[in-house]
Amino acid sequence: MADVTDTTNPTIFLRLKSAEAQPRQFAWNEFHARYAPIIAGFARRLGGKPQDVDDVVQDVLMGFFAKAPTFVYDPSQGRFRGYLKVCAVRALQRRLGKAVRAQGQALDDVDPGAVAVEQVWEDVWQQEKLRRALAELKAQMAGSRTFDAFEQYVVFGKPAQEVADALGLHVNSVYRAKEQLTTALQEKLRAEGDDE
To answer: What pTM did the predictor assign?
Structure first.
């Protein structure tokens, strides 16, 4: 899979329009890998059932697929993530109407720019950004006991001594792994920025 950062790369929109099948397919795979988890997480957080979530993701992505030939990404008109959020809200409204709620209010009655909706979208966006950065870090450090210690201790919340014993490390190595990889993760997140 392609390395995808948090910043929308305008070339993805050009590649989606490519006359050549392979670059276009690669761009769609990249687009799907980047945005489908965010749309799905957003739909789940607003109460969508699993089958509804899949339908909403498909509606949004197919809607964009239909618009892609004429879509022009213009950062001066706002972030792409805002456009995508509005598309997701509208798909949820069409599919689920009053069954989906944002802070107790039916989504049909909520403006896509409302604070409640924006907060859910932003939370899901940031979680996905963190998940991608963590996955990238894991791939870079495949098989590393340092990453394994970090994952067990920080991500899975196991006690440091238990992690040290399981991995054959001194407990101080577990603490150093946490410090080292937390810093690396923060740097990765900073490098990705938040322009999308």
So the answer is: 0.71
Q: Residue 105 forms beta bridges with which residues? A: 102
CATH for 167: 1.10.10
Residue 135 lies in a domain: no
pLDDT at residue number 2: 37
Provide φ and ψ at 105, rounded to 5°: -105, 135
Task: Tell me which residue range forms the domain holding 45.
Answer: 1-129
CB under 8 A, 24+ apart: contacts of 67-70:
68/13, 68/16, 68/17, 69/17
Whether 51 contacts 106, CB under 8 Å = no
Which pLDDT tens digit goes with each residue over 110-161? 666 666 778 888 899 889 989 989 999 999 998 899 999 999 999 999 999 9
Q: Are residues 50 and 111 in the same domain?
A: yes
Per DSSP, 156 falls in state S
